[in-house]
Amino acid sequence: MVNILITGVAGFIGSNYVHQVLVKNRGTQIIGLDKLTYAGNIENLTSIINEDDFIFIKGDICDRKLLEKIFHKYEINQIINFAAESHVDRSIHDPQVFLKTNILGTQTLLEVAKTHWSIDTSWKTGCKFLQISTDEVYGSLGAEGKFNENTPLDPHSPYSASKAAADLIVQAYHDTYGIPMNITRCSNNFGPYQFPEKLIPLIIHNALHHKKLPIYGDGRQIRDWIYVLDHCDAIDIVLRNGISGNIYNIGGNNELENIQLVKEIISILNELTEDSSICNNLIEHVTDRPGHDRRYAIDSSKIESDLKWQRRFIFSDVLRTTIQWYMDNPVWIDNVITGEYQKFYEQNYGNR
Length: 352
Ligand code: NAD
Ligand code: DAU
Description:
The chain is of the alpha/beta class. The chain contains 12 helices and 14 strands. It has one domain: NAD(P)-binding Rossmann-like Domain (Rossmann fold). Strand 7, helix 5 and strand 8 form a beta-alpha-beta unit. It is globular and about 65 Å long. The two termini are 25 Å apart.
């Protein structure tokens, strides 16, 4: 029996992942842990919160006592660590919580896993720690080339520095104690349930409200966009088949300038809403993000050749379905922005 602890389960990627695993129904017992910060929403889990093979616990990955209890009670044998402070702009304004959750939280999870999984000099069969990391740890590229797993770490924001530090701690627990682990480093995700501070949902939300669309600097920065369920497929494959100690890069092979992407979103919205006032005039160039990385591009050939991962989704199709999802769920957006779902959790599940 696999008893898997999924941290950050109520966030964007964690909630998409857990829906996908439960749909596949692999007889996995899932323990979902989340602090329910502004970015974590119980509503993202409504359709599964009462399923027998899913248990939700509100809590902090820095809380060692709580983790000990969870490991003991549920005999956890695998961890996927999605929990993090994830937004670059917030890390520029207030770095400390990034260091606490992303670095110390990861180390606390590793320490508890080490205590429960190591037997004399060997490790419990089937145990694994999977750290969900990011391509931002590699820093910024010039016009040519892509990040591969051997690209040196060169983070520029407090967020990416904290993620790079967490990766190094995971590697240190592997090299020093032998903990079975993998690290995945993915490019920019998009899809349903993404907090509307990130570029794609922010632009959709603002455009639907005829608000200005802020573009940092010249807008010619490049990101490699991947649909969240392609990322989730890759995570699942690494969890099952990744060779312990290995890092796997995951990308969309889909580089776009921010300005190009925003114009594409406007044009799809224009068509879907038949509202001609949603137009390029809403774009407003604003002061650039300090330390802004210019270009990310990912070489995914290792995971493609070693683990046979392939993307399933076509960008233009899933960009359209993502836009449609935000149009169909205005209440979700309003409630995550106002923090209504946090209040809902306390009222309905707070005494669990
Ligand atoms: P998110 O901000 O949507 O979700 C993070 C979740 O972690 C939230 O539910 C939040 O409540 C929870 N959390 C925060 N601090 C916690 C703590 N101390 N204890 C327990 N839970 C806590 O982020 P996301 O976009 O879903 O990202 C998930 C992971 O994937 C992160 O580690 C991020 O670095 C990584 N990642 C994200 C992307 C992307 O494009 N979004 C790309 C590559 C990697
Ligand atoms: O590359 C993976 C990373 O992608 C993840 O590790 C992070 O958790 C995730 O937040 C994301 O980071 P970015 O900084 O790339 O994402 P964001 O959506 O904040 O910004 C995408 C690009 O758009 C970036 O170049 C900054 C720009 N931008 C963003 C916002 C919010 C704007 O021009 N205007 C905006 O209002």
